[in-house]
Amino acid sequence: MTDLSPSVAPTPGTAVSGKIAFQGEPGAYSHEACRRARPGMEAMPCATFEDTVEACRSGAADLAMLPVENSTYGRVADIHHLLPESGLHIVDETFVRVHISLLGVRGARLEDITEAMSHTVLLGQCRNFLRRHNIRTITGPDTAGSALMVAQAGERQRAALASPLAGEIYGLDSLAEQIEDRQNNTTRFLIMAREPDYARRPNRDGHGKMLTSFVFRVRNIPAALYKAMGGFATNGVNMTKLESYMVDGNFTATQFYADIEGHPEDPAVARALDELRYFTSVLTILGVYPADPLRAEQRAGR
């Protein structure tokens, strides 16, 4: 049974010291997410997602910032496998509008650019601009790492696709801004900690809507998934995400990741989770946390 005892959470707007780990070079969108969600913490760059998790797990960092999905590109590969195995807990989420800039060396012009480097995920988010300007793509290690490599190479024909923050850090000129195919291009990040926090707490705008994330495997009985999901429908619990993925490369072993609105202590959520447990062999709550304010904006169509 999950321990739902309250814990102490910082008041919105209060400075928080310590370190928050992220994957990538300084200037990455994950770095921007750290500055947005935890401006009082020192952002700690890590080479891989696994290194980011380990930094938090080992105590080298207090929190870890992990991207999980992008509104244009979809979910971030391997993250859903990493989350339940990490031993960490989701304590918050933050959304970052992904504004992509074409960054070149000092003095370069847009017409000079014949190739652009970035992470494969970002390359897929501005195909229209690249096609229109006949710019071929080069897959880089990550967004900010690509900006660093372009700055170090000093070649006028090569640009990086990265955040404006990366341009500032590495001394690159912005040759074109907000070139993403979709203006609502947004990445969702999860903030992970070594200890869970099930306290009801407001988001940075002071609102108190909570989310619960969990993974589960259904029992090997007919219509188990249908029956397991029925508890959420009959209890009026809104499920905002449900994704499946194979376990250990086995086609017959499927695990599901889900996000729902509400707190496990809410009567309707408690009933739905109790019904889910009846039809599952494994159920693990990954975290209970406040909803990012941008969720409400997206629902309102802004």
From TrEMBL:
<comment type="pathway">
    <text>Amino-acid biosynthesis; L-phenylalanine biosynthesis; phenylpyruvate from prephenate: step 1/1.</text>
</comment>
<feature type="domain" description="ACT">
    <location>
        <begin position="213"/>
        <end position="290"/>
    </location>
</feature>
<dbReference type="InterPro" id="IPR045865">
    <property type="entry name" value="ACT-like_dom_sf"/>
</dbReference>
<dbReference type="InterPro" id="IPR008242">
    <property type="entry name" value="Chor_mutase/pphenate_deHydtase"/>
</dbReference>
<keyword id="KW-0456">Lyase</keyword>
<dbReference type="GO" id="GO:0005737">
    <property type="term" value="C:cytoplasm"/>
</dbReference>
<keyword id="KW-0584">Phenylalanine biosynthesis</keyword>
<feature type="site" description="Essential for prephenate dehydratase activity">
    <location>
        <position position="187"/>
    </location>
</feature>
<dbReference type="GO" id="GO:0009094">
    <property type="term" value="P:L-phenylalanine biosynthetic process"/>
</dbReference>
<dbReference type="GO" id="GO:0004664">
    <property type="term" value="F:prephenate dehydratase activity"/>
</dbReference>
<protein>
    <recommendedName>
        <fullName>prephenate dehydratase</fullName>
        <ecNumber>4.2.1.51</ecNumber>
    </recommendedName>
</protein>
<dbReference type="InterPro" id="IPR002912">
    <property type="entry name" value="ACT_dom"/>
</dbReference>
<dbReference type="InterPro" id="IPR001086">
    <property type="entry name" value="Preph_deHydtase"/>
</dbReference>
<feature type="domain" description="Prephenate dehydratase">
    <location>
        <begin position="19"/>
        <end position="194"/>
    </location>
</feature>
<keyword id="KW-0028">Amino-acid biosynthesis</keyword>
<keyword id="KW-0057">Aromatic amino acid biosynthesis</keyword>
<dbReference type="InterPro" id="IPR018528">
    <property type="entry name" value="Preph_deHydtase_CS"/>
</dbReference>
<dbReference type="Pfam" id="PF00800">
    <property type="entry name" value="PDT"/>
</dbReference>
